[in-house]
């Protein structure tokens, strides 16, 4: 949690909803990761929070960047980051965007299908390519396993084909799922990566890189172990499978880098019940919901810590927390057992912690006429 962000909220009392992101926390997270995975290159996953203030701070620290679109590449280039420090990591890209990125000096491209590989060969000739493999990772609160990647056999065949298309087959990537709570989940995909390295080596192709993706956690209501445990477990898996011939290692953290840097403040718009029964839970409606930036409450997957911003004495009671829009999907927490003080009042403010990742970007639309989430970077 960021004390500076809380202090800023207390001193400036900005209109709600708003997010405050402490750039010093982002810096500390970056340094924590580089200390605990010293042999890896950190490519910040821009999608987690593309604010120029964050990109600028990380660019100065020497980070590289994982990008999902031409727009994200443009934002990174604006900070003077050279193309070699940018990976075009989305496996679904327009041909015109590949050509544009290539012209900007971006060398590294992800793919997970033959058609995408052919697009890259045509529009980024000679580029370094890496193939994303499917993983059956468990333990992630925000899984990413079905949409991206191909089976290891296909990855090996496509990387061999990449060489025939004039591309440089560079390596393998995977993502064990976001907010991954089990540090052992990297082991199996690393073993698959090594098997692909060996298979291609037998036909004279030397792969050079393993991209371990993201998945490193932020601190929500479910406890996590520290980044040290992730570093240790991952390096154990790398040496178990690759021995002392370690390849180039890339990580693409998003949530871990910026999640805990953010504190969001929201206002209680309504507190009500659906019946006169004393058993009926109270509904607490905030001025932010699923469409205002808290999209990851979908399925109640990501459970933020939420507290009133003032000290409220007395007992707490179970509540349903919901957003302000006229959409019944806009319920934040129903099954999760959230409690709020009995004496919470309409007009009170609440703080939602660890909200620096995957919030502002999800609120870029004006659904129901609510403004996109305002953010301050301090
Ligand atoms: C390709 C890629 N890399 C990295 C990330 C960042 O993951 P995380 O936020 O879990 O660190 C994502 C998240 O969607 C991703 O798709």
Structure, explained:
The chain is 29% helix and 23% strand. With 378 residues, the chain is of the alpha/beta class. It has two domains: 23-257, Alanine racemase (TIM Barrel, Alpha-Beta Barrel), CATH 3.20.20.10; 260-377, Lyase, Ornithine Decarboxylase, Chain A, domain 1. The strands form three sheets. Strands 1, 12, 13, 14, 15, 16, 17, 18 and 19 form a nine-stranded mixed β-sheet that branches. The chain has an eight-stranded parallel barrel with strand order 2-3-4-5-6-8-10-11, surrounded by five helices. A two-stranded antiparallel sheet has the order 7-9. The protein is elongated and about 75 Å long. The relative contact order is 0.16. The model has no long low-confidence stretch (mean pLDDT 96). Pyridoxal-5'-phosphate binds at residues 45, 47-48, 66, 89, 144, 175, 178, 213-216, 252-256.
List the topology elements.
Elements: H1 3-12, E1 18-21, H2 23-36, E2 40-45, H3 52-61, E3 64-67, H4 70-77, E4 86-88, H5 95-103, E5 108-111, H6 114-123, E6 128-132, E7 140-142, H7 152-164, E8 168-173, E9 178-180, H8 187-202, E10 209-211, H9 227-242, E11 248-251, H10 255-258, E12 262-272, E13 282-286, E14 306-308, E15 316-322, E16 331-333, E17 339-341, E18 349-353, E19 374-377
Parallel strand pairs: 1-19, 2-3, 2-11, 3-4, 4-5, 5-6, 6-8, 8-10, 10-11, 13-15
Antiparallel strand pairs: 1-12, 7-9, 12-13, 12-18, 14-18, 15-16, 15-17
Helix pairs in contact: 2-3, 5-6, 7-8, 8-9
The structure holds pyridoxal-5'-phosphate.
């Amino acid at each position: 949690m960021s004390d500076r962000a809380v202090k800023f909220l207390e001193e400036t009392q900005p209109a709600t909803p708003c997010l405050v992101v402490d750039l010093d926390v982002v810096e500390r997270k970056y340094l924590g990761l580089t200390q605990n995975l010293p042999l890896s290159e950190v490519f910040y996953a821009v999608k987690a929070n593309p604010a120029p203030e964050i990109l600028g701070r990380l660019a100065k620290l020497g980070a590289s960047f994982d990008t999902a679109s031409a727009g994200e590449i443009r934002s990174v280039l604006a900070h003077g980051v050279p193309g070699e420090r940018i990976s075009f990591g989305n496996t679904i890209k327009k041909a015109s965007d590949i050509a544009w990125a290539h012209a900007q000096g971006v060398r590294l491209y992800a793919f997970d299908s033959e058609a995408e590989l052919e697009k890259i060969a045509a529009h980024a000739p000679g580029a370094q390519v890496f193939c994303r493999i499917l993983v059956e990772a468990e333990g992630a609160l925000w899984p990413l396993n079905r949409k991206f990647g191909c089976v290891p056999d296909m990855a090996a065949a496509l990387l061999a084909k990449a060489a025939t298309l004039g591309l440089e087959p560079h390596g393998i990537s995977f993502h064990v799922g976001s907010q991954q709570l089990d540090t052992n989940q990297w082991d199996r995909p690393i073993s698959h990566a090594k098997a692909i390295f060996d298979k291609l080596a037998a036909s004279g192709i030397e792969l050079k890189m393993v991209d371990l993706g993201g998945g490193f956690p932020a601190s929500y209501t479910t406890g996590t172990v520290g980044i040290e445990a992730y570093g240790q477990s991952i390096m154990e898996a790398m040496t178990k499978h690759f021995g002392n011939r370690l390849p180039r290692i890339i990580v693409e953290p998003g949530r871990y880098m910026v999640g805990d840097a953010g504190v969001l403040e929201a206002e209680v718009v309504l507190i009500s019940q659906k019946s006169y029964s004393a058993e009926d839970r109270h509904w607490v409606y905030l001025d932010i919901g699923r469409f205002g930036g808290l999209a990851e409450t979908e399925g109640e997957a990501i459970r933020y810590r939420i507290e009133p911003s003032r000290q409220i004495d007395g007992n707490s009671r179970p509540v349903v927390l919901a957003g302000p829009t006229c959409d019944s999907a806009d319920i934040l927490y129903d099954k999760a057992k959230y409690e709020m003080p009995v004496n919470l009042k309409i007009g009170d403010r609440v703080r939602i912690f660890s909200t620096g990742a995957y919030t502002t970007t999800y609120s870029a639309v004006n659904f129901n006429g609510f403004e996109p989430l305002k953010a301050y970077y301090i």
